[in-house]
Amino acid sequence: MFGDDHALSLALIDSLGIAGIVVWHMQGRNRPTGRLTVQILFFAGMSLVLYMGGIAPHRPDGLYTQGFAALLSKSARILWWTHFAWTIVGFLHIYVRFNRKPQEAHLILDMAVAVIYLGVALSVMGFVFGMPIATLVTTSGVAAIILGLALQNTLGDVFSGIALTLGKAYAIGDWVQLSDGTAGRVTETNWRSTNLLTGANNIAVLPNSMLARQGLTSLSRPDETHQITLTVRFAAGQKPRFVEDAMRSVLQASTRIVKDPLPAVALKSIDAIAIEAELQFRVASLAMGMSAKNEIIDIIHDQCGASGLLLAMPAESLVYMPVATSRESSVPSAAARLSRPVQDPLKTVLP
After folding, report:
1. Any transmembrane segments, and where (predicted)?
2. Contact 77/126 with Cβ under 8 angstroms?
3. Residue 274 shares a structural domain with residue 214
């Protein structure tokens, strides 16, 4: 009688396991909460039947060792371990969704899911089929070493991506700039690489190991505002105070810059040629930088026309004229001789 009850329990577990898989697929990918509910209910039902029937899923079945009954016993245990893995994975997915960081944490989530499935696979081999787990682990370790040596670069990208994710150096949607000058918005991170949308509307695919080696500046933290500096040179004949006031009025007239914190004007230098002023202002995001800078330049042009400010020549346009020595000045150069006007011989003869 015990054997019949045992077989009935195994058949009921198989039925619940198959029904759970069917209902789980019917929920669809767009209903993660419904899928988790189905997983919990069917897994709880299968566990209850195991407990009531006195069946231990972590030990091989010593009652049914051959025939249809053995197949029924092994399939029931396999289905229970499968639902056990799915239930844990479902809880992990719900936890990540409740934290509202599905994009940033998916690398760690994928690793956790892989560890769970690997552990369940080893459990099925050891507890259901009676295979020596120690031998399997040793064999898997040797295979992992060989595979790791063959995939050193790929594994470097994988672990660099995990380190960057754990360190929270950036998040999806952040503007970042690398030490080599590459800049863009982070659109995707995966096991091997990180994708940046550059200002030229191109996707730059950067290996995670390269990102881990380079210096990285986040342009979106602590907030999205970005500071821009614009240097303008004015003729030195004007008063520095007048130049500063004029540039402050330019910044106040702009509508595309952030007014908190207040923009500033710094007089950087003065010489016999020019007064150099630096305009410091912030924009709401890096994408607004070009339009704000264009607006500031346009207002500076209008301000110069209204207030009589004169722009100075660029510093690189000034040409250095060497002073000739006394010996060089006594002997006219070939260019000087060619440029000297030729006298009319009649003028030297006729009075």
Report:
1. 6-24, 36-58, 78-96, 108-127, 133-151
2. no
3. no
Total domains in the fold of the chain: 3
pLDDT tens readout for residues 46-92: 888 888 877 777 776 666 656 677 788 888 888 888 889 888 888 88
Q: Is residue 332 part of a domain?
A: no
Positive or negative CA dihedral for 283, 288, 290, 293? negative
Nearest to 243 by CA among 204, 270, 263, 219: 270
**Distance between CA 279 and CA 263 in Å, rounded?**
8
Strands 183-189 and 175-178: antiparallel
User: Are the CB atoms for 87 and 20 separated by under 8 Å?
Assistant: no
Among left, alpha and beta (phi > 0; psi -120 to 50; other), residue 287 is alpha
Instruction: Give residues with Cβ within 8 angstroms of 86, minimum separation 6.
Output: 24, 39, 43
The answer for residues whose C-beta is within 8 angstroms of residue 176's C-beta and 6 or more apart is 170, 183, 184, 185, 186, 196, 216, 217, 218, 219, 220
208 with 281, same domain: the answer is no
**pTM for this one?**
0.49
- 65 and 22, same structural domain? yes
Distance CA 111, CA 285 (A): 34
Tokens 């020595």: give the residue: 325
Tokens of 249: 């009025």
Max CA distance (Å), the chain: 152
Contact 267, 243 (CB under 8 A): yes
Q: With left for phi above 0 and alpha for psi between -120 and 50, is residue 348 left, alpha or beta?
A: alpha
With tokens 């009589």, the residue in question is: 308
Whether residues 92 and 170 share a domain: the answer is: no
Q: Could you read off the pLDDT of 103-122 as tens digits, one per residue? A: 556 667 777 888 888 888 88
In a domain, 341, yes or no: no
Identity of residue 45: G
Cβ-in-10-Å burial (0-12, 13-18, 19+) of 279 comes to buried
Q: Is the same domain home to 8 and 134?
A: yes
